[in-house]
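Q: Structure for this?
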Amino acid sequence: MNWNFWLPIFLPLSSLVTALLILVIRENQHRLRTFVNLLGATLKIVMVAVVGYGVYTQHAYEARMPLSLTLDLVLRVDDISLLFLALSSTLWFLTTIFAVGYLEGSPHQSRFFCFFSLCMTATMGISLAGNLITFLIFYEMLTLATYPLIVHRGTEKALRAGRIYLAYTLVGGAVTLAGTAWIHTLVGPTQFAHGGVLAPLAPTHRHQLQAIFTLMIVGLGVKAALFPLHGWLPTAMVAPAPVSALLHAVAVVKAGVFGIVRLIYDVFGVKFAVSLGVLAPLSWLAGFTIVYGSIRALFQHDLKRRLAYSTVSQLSYIVLGAAVFGASGTIGALAHLVHQGLMKITLFFCAGILGETWGIHGVDELSGIGRRMPLTMGAFTIAAFGMIGTPPMAGFVSKWYLGLGGVRAGDYWVLAVLIASSVLNCAYFLPIIHDAWFGKSRQDSVALPQRRSLVVPAAETSLPLLLPALVTAFMSLTAGLFAGSHFSPLGAARLITERMYAP
Amino acid sequence: MSGALPILIGGPFAAAMVSFLFTGAIGRALSVLLATASAVAALATSIEVMRSGVQIHALAGWGAPLGIELRIDGLAMLMLLLTAGISLAVTTFAAGYLKGDAQPHFWPLWYFLWGALNTVFLVSDIFSLYVCLELITLAAVGGTALSGDRIALSASLRYLMSAIMGSLAYLLGVAMIYAQVGTLDLTQLSGRLGSSWSSGAALSLVTAGLAMKTALFPLHFWLPAAHSLAPAPISAALSAMVVKASFYVLLRFWFQLSEPTSNQLAAHLLGALGMAAVLWGSVQAALQERLKLVVAYSTVAQIGYLFFIFPLFGGALAAGRSEWAQEAWKGGIILILAHAVAKSAMFLVSGALLQTFGSDRISDLKGAAVRAPLTLAAWGIAGISLIGLPPSGGFIAKWLLLTTAIRQEYWLYVAVLLLGGLLASVYVFRVLWHSFLTPEEMPSVSRIPGSMSISILALTVVLLLMGLRPAIPLEFTLIGIPLPAGDLR
């Protein structure tokens, strides 16, 4: 058996098989379902580790299947996909544990975990896609697989959120399809390659290419929540907490950002994109979104909505880094792709724990909760400081490189954006943290336990909920502390960037 | 080959007679056997076509122009396979769906329709095509009237009138062509139809008649009522196969008989009507309250896409890019296949929901996602194909049409292709949205019979496979298509 061919297929396929297996598991067979889920997630991590070692030792993993005479479905592991693979497989494993604890005792779990695994299949496909058409196929699949998760609760509000989500993402998908088809008609079947594939077309196609770039950014920008295409993200908050966690850290929004990174570096090529003059407007838009998202976050009273606007802002850090020409910006973008995932998932885990254990949803209900749930709020605090960018947290590392990128490219306004955003981050995170640790404890009658089974005397909440939050908090701390190591997200980002800018 | 042909035509007709004469269990079993044999024959014929190209068979040893010649090329082969597959699914579904007293009338009509469909894809002269289209119409109208209530009867009468109008126009055109050239055989006619005034008039008549039968906007007025009031298995066959049969004949006329580059204006007229159909049909589908009407209007819209093939193909040839024309051709054929499979699945799903929930009002579907999850999943997958999202046959078709349109810079077609997909998503997801709602009390519903679920699931699996391995049907779309630009092999 040719592992170099089959491994890229097995990666998404294992999630698909998990999804199908869960479909046949009866609703009340909780242990079996959990076992299948965790088995699938573990297998995935092992495979990613094998592939990672393989790439390290110069193996080329590629599977190519013809769709038609001129179209190939290409699954392939390169350095950027490995980064995204590692992030998504790790966080998926933790989120699965969290979801098992979170959904305990609620109905329709088989449906939930089936689509959960389908989402994973799509995310794996997105990270492994070796050309635009493959990317598009999995990108659309992700849109569809996420919908049942958002409307999972079946309430009017959830369905409305689902409708808004679909309206945005399907239009975005259609625009992406148009751009992809256009590129296909210009250069035929293409592959992602550092340095891009469109450069030979210039200068006769300059205006066409600018139009294509705009189309693609509009299409991908929907999922990446670029202003003014971000409207669906805060509404999608009605989804169960594990779904929000995934949505904001790995799956949907990252698919958009990842697509933009691919577009700039592997389709257009960053140098060519600069010569087309399309990157500067994108960086301005990203800069504006950063500040806009932070300001909107400041005025949200629902904890999850505040986190959602914070995501809008944080995602644009990645876009900004990718759009500012120069190695430092690229390093910052790629590192933040991972850092943001780790920190944001921690925050959403904590928000989920607070909501599920004590029924806390508003930011003004957190008073004194830190004394009751020290571990949860500890994790929250670490992640929030990371978001603000306090050294030595992970967020500081990304912001440092982003700022450096701005300065090196001569775009000093990037620094202003970063500083403004950090100040705003402080303004919307610090009061929460202060209240939680030093505020007056509230009467139990105000914040009633949501689920009594979760309030156990020995621990502050059930282990499947707490453990993932602690692990991701720990990871976002170490990603910053040991940023200099080769195996940190930053180390990987530097390695990738070196290859990207290699002549 | 020659052994399979009699079974291909005779099997379903014999089944029709058997099920008419013997309504008992043995008669039913025998008729199913005969019909299944024809499906196997279709497969055998297809393998033969794959191996050794176009198959020609002269009935009773008399070839064209004296006798009737049967000719199977790649397109005919795909249509035969499609008919076999969908008919098998519909038959399986109907076995679980139909209640006692409906059965004696249903089965003979159904097998008759099946036989007529097989025949239309085999014959290769324009008069026999007329006869076959009439046979199809008779069976289809009968099937529409099966429920016997007043609305269904009036819908079927309207259907009959429209279809006969279409047939008359077609027949007139055929007569004019015969008077001019003196032969009816498609192959012999190829290239001999000049660009005279009368041949133009003949082709216009044929096109108008077939557009009526295919329900191209604005001649679609008979379709929504007829397709939605027929029993679900018949609806599936009507939307999937019957409108495609007349479209198939239209393809033969346009690409085998006339010079596609010579009438680009007419092609754009068809394309424009197609665009109007896509927009009008999709908007109407999104506004309907009844599930089967949603599906029927969606057929109006999807038929519109099919007509894009004429301007896209002709434009590519006029630009001297036969490889683009090939892509347009392939896209059109794949769309026929994908739409047929998706639409039959959707009508079968509507039938299953109608039977289990006792209503096909969309607002009554609350809780369906919990009570009938697999059926709703099938709806979703069929919907994905209609919208044109991957991985499905519909995506491949849309991709091929879209890239061809972009290459020729037909931006209006590009816009309608994209917009049509978005409009389709509105009516597809509206149904899912209602089914996800949690009602105050869960409806207690009967279990969907296994035969119904199996046929629905089989269709959706085919649809997904078409999206994942489209190379297989794509290769065969080109076998023996004698397109006027000789380089199209």
